[in-house]
Amino acid sequence: MELLVVVGIVVVLAALVMVGFVTRRPTRALPPAPAPAAEPPRMVADVESPLLTDTPALDVPEPTAGRLIRLRGRLGRSQTTLGRGLFALLSRDKLDDETWEQVEDTLLTSDMGVAATQELVERLKQRVRIEGLTSPAELRAILREELVTTLGRDLDRTLRTLPHADRPAVVLVVGVNGTGKTTTCGKLARVLVADGRSVVLGAADTFRAAAADQLETWGSRVGAHTVRGPEGGDPAAVAFDAVAKGKELKADTVLVDTAGRLHTKTGLMDELGKVKRVVEKHGPIDETLLVLDATTGQNGVVQARVFTEAVQVTGVVLTKLDGTAKGGIVVAVQRELGIPVKLVGLGEGPDDLAPFEAEAFADALLGDDAAL
Ligand SMILES: Nc1nc2c(ncn2[C@@H]2O[C@H](COP(=O)(O)OP(=O)(O)OP(=O)(O)O)[C@@H](O)[C@H]2O)c(=O)[nH]1
Ligand SMILES: [Mg+2]
Prior knowledge:
Blueprint: H1 2-23, E1 45-47, H2 50-54, H3 67-70, H4 76-90, H5 97-108, H6 114-131, H7 136-151, E2 169-174, H8 181-194, E3 199-204, H9 209-222, E4 225-228, H10 235-248, E5 253-258, H11 266-279, E6 287-293, H12 299-311, E7 315-319, H13 329-337, E8 341-345, E9 353-355, H14 358-366
Parallel strand pairs: 2-5, 2-6, 3-4, 3-5, 6-7, 7-8
Antiparallel strand pairs: 1-4, 8-9
Helix pairs in contact: 4-5, 5-6, 6-7, 7-14, 8-9, 10-11, 12-13
Bound molecules: guanosine-5'-triphosphate and magnesium ion (MG).
């Protein structure tokens, strides 16, 4: 009986200890509170993520390694056109001129561009002739190899997001309306956080308050701080302040989202030039990413040219590849502009952004199940 009482007391005590442990979960460390402004206010507000104060549950983004391989199924439409189409043609008994023309047509429908397509077909023809390849497995192997060459095997696709000794890395995100800039900033913040970095977001799209809200929501899910300004305010001032905030918080990377703008509107392109110049008072921008919507096809190349003249684009993010059969646009953009595709968007989900890798992309385009 006494033993039972003792056991009972121990159980009750243990339960109390556990309840105390659960309810006193350690709170997440907060970034230092913004220092009071020494200068007159610039009408730019620093926004603490609401989740930092009351909800401990921040998202844990997926690791970035091997994302393209995981997301390869999303390229379904391109796979059907390219992979199945090409394999069906190449597995014919005789590879005559007519068949090669059809191979060329198939590649052209992927928006690779005429010159790149003709070169690729020429290389394929030559190898088939010289190496006397006929077996389906051999043909598949050279198709993959040549496609990787066309996609750019050795291009430097490094995203420059590592901080400098005295300031964070700065990434400027630009592009025409609705291409996926804000979404890309949000997804990229997650990628960086997943890699253990701290991020500050700058909502330099001041046209609509909703744009800043959208960015802030992305940031708050991973605990990233957002700097925003008043609707209709100066985007360059917000961008400048975002970098200043990044310095103050000793953040690793500042991602600056900008408003969508048509490349044909000179005034807006000039405004973008100003954003760049003002931000660079802190030091050179590390990465200027142009976000292109893959479904707009060859028009993306025209956009890219104009943006490059305004802000020296260093990398392309190709979004919405999940909704098009035109995966070949990667090739056209790189070839005509000499700017590497660094990231690809393959869906609307928070982790549907992958670093571009030529080999994995070629595999995804050709598809496993389309084997000869
Ligand atoms: N399917 C798909 N949808 C995407 C992808 N990236 C972005 N989107 C969608 O495209 C739409 C526009 O995205 P935003 O990020 O708001 O585009 P934005 O360039 O910031 O737009 P503006 O600021 O208005 O110029 C949203 O519905 C996104 O979910 C992608 O890779 N795949
Ligand atoms: Mg936007």
